[in-house]
Amino acid sequence: MSQSLKGKTALVTGGSRGIGRAIAERLAADGATVAITYNASSAGAEEVVATIEKTGGTAFALHADLVDAAAIPALFDALDREFNTRKGSKALDILVNNAGNSGWGGLADATPDAWNTMFAVHARAPFFVVQSALSRLSDGGRIINTSSGLATRPLPAVPIYSMAKAAINNLTHALAMELGPRGITVNAVAPGWTRTDMNAAVRENADMVKAIEADTALGRFGETSDIAAVVAFLASEEGRWVTAQVIEASGGYKL
Q1: pLDDT tens across 199-253, in order?
Q2: Contacts of 194 (CB under 8 A, 6+ apart)
Q3: Residues in domain Ketoreductase (predicted)?
Q4: Whole-number pLDDT of residue 255
Q5: Does residue 161 have an active-site annotation?
Q6: Catalytic residue among 38, 76, 83, 161
Q7: What is the CATH number of the domain that holds 31?
Q8: Which residue range forms the structural domain that includes residue 121?
Q9: Taking the model in full, what pTM does it have?
């Protein structure tokens, strides 16, 4: 990799698996010191850190249950301590709001608790993570939110998830306007069908796989590295003139 992020610091929420893991590994490969958050899988987080360190990168993991808004200030206290120890400063250059939870569940079986949990992780947490990050974010920094193609093409099987991701797109635009005077870019990356454990059941259905691939211009499911590459571009100096954008990284799904 190019080491284009050498000397930079990054926080990737939900970095212990799937797309978040690929993003963390890519940013570390590009030279950033990367903090990841995890909730349930400490073993997964430790594996990500070990993988990054084995290839010469620098990373560490912090626990944070982002369903609980009260966990966010504590997360940043821990982040401050780690960055001060490792870098001599609590400055944060790149924030990736990626943490999520499973979105399956339609109108008929939805509950207020399911709604609250979904919006807590996918919409409320990014808002308050950015709020806590503001005093740490470097001028000229980067905020990158993980959205979804479902934000603009919702599915009836996942209405709450689709709505929460639409909220992320709106937040991205609002933050870009507010933080532009500081040179901070704010963008969202909206994956399409990407190979992760969250859609493993879908990929076990050969007919569904065939239909999805037929509806995708590039004819395949995305890989997590495909999404990480877009994030890496936005995080780099090359992405300096891109802000307030929702970039769909779907391989051309349902054009």
Answers
A1: 888 898 999 999 999 999 999 999 999 999 999 999 999 999 999 999 999 999 9
A2: 19, 221, 222, 223, 224, 226, 227
A3: 8-196
A4: 82
A5: yes
A6: 161
A7: 3.40.50.720
A8: 9-249
A9: 0.96
